Amino acid sequence: MFTFIDVFAGIGGFRQGCDLAGGLCVWACEKDKFARQTYASNFDIDDPEFAYDFAKDIEDVDPKDIPDHDLLLSGFPCQPFSTAGRREGFAHEIQGTLFFELAKIIKEKQPPFFLLENVKGLLSHKSGSTMFTIMRVLNELGYKVYPKVIDADGFVPQHRERVYLAGVREDVGSYWHELNGPWAEFEEDKFRKPPKGYVQLRHILEPHDQVSVKYTMSDRYMAGLRAHTIKQAAKGNTFGYRIYHPGDVTGALTASYAKSAQSILIHQGEHMNPRKLTPRECARLMGYPEHFNIPVSNTQAYKQFGNSVVPGVIWAIMHAMLPWHYRE
Questions:
Q1: Which among 5, 57, 211, 291 has the fewest CB atoms less than 10 Å away?
Q2: Is the pLDDT of residue 98 over 70?
Q3: Nearest-CA neighbor of 293 among 9, 12, 6?
Q4: CA distances (Å), 207 to each of 211, 246, 251, 271, 304, in order?
């Protein structure tokens, strides 16, 4: 068994995947009250082994108060990174960014492993300088870091590319290399990913006659989408809406799905307007189990699932990343 902390915990996507891999959460932190509501309704935060510090803003947390752990998990907001103070060390250079809060925890607690997640665009943000800074900071803290872009397609019926930074403390890596041969370096052959298209949209959709008509797009809405598409095309811009069929794999679910559902519309027949996904279908699209509780409004649910990680991807990373004895 391994212990982990859940930073920027959201609704618990990281925790869901790590629980399945045999992990034990010992601390979590999430600022958004609606995300905390969903998290608390699905995980036992009253467990005496769990340090309930959940409502705190990460910037108010003293890293010394965080329990020791084997693994730090976090999907972190990609705030603008300053390029000032390049020679003055990580504390000056990234002061004021939320990544700095993660770096403070890693520096203080020195966990054997960490796993960070962000949008694929992090790799090209500011022509790569942001990623360079992150990698340099983590290297300076004593970690080997393995970036990997993973598409969740195969785990779920959704193309969802995210960059994962798997970090291993240098002394831990050397130790396991000496004892057991090459330790898990996030290598392709150790990452258990189902084939693309293994799960299709049909597997997560409700029966047509069980979906409320409130999810069907109105004539006015569809007319507006078509007009806007034509207008943008005339300007040379790419804009469109996507209508998916049961055998398809969708594009990425976004946090703005409640307001801009055109990215994933579901075909309902030749003579009907398409519909948006229900919150339960979004949960399935992200790979959450049927028993996962959704206690918030539809608007908040769409935002939460759009911001989440795919738990199945996290489970697979754990098996590719952690030495075997952590998963026994």
A1: 291
A2: yes
A3: 12
A4: 7, 11, 21, 18, 24
Q: For residue 29, indicate whether it is catalytic.
A: no
Q: At what angle do helices 129-140 and 98-109 cross, to 10 degrees?
A: 20
Residue range of the domain that includes 264: 201-291
Alpha-carbon span 8 to 264, nearest angstrom: 26
Token pair for residue 12? 């618990």
Q: Is residue 296 part of a domain?
A: no
Same structural domain, 209 and 312? no
Q: At 155, list the tokens.
A: 């785990």
- What are phi and psi for residue 136, nearest 5 degrees? -65, -40
Q: In the predicted model, is pLDDT for residue 324 greater than 60?
A: no
Q: Name the residue among 274, 164, 184 with its Cα closest to residue 222.
A: 274
Global pTM reads 0.88
Options 18, 25, 29, 78, the catalytic residue: 78
In the chain the beta strands, taken as DSSP E runs, fall at 2-7, 23-29, 51-52, 71-75, 113-119, 143-151, 161-169, 243-244, 265-266
Q: Write the CATH number for 246.
A: 3.90.120.10
Pick the closest to residue 168 from 13, 318, 327 (CA basis). 318
Tokens 């908040």 map to which residue? 300
Long-range contacts from 297-300, C-beta under 8 angstroms, 24+ separation: 298/258, 299/258, 300/34, 300/38
Specify the 3-state DSSP secondary structure of 299. Answer: helix
Domain count, the chain: 2
| Percentage of the chain exceeding pLDDT 90 | 58
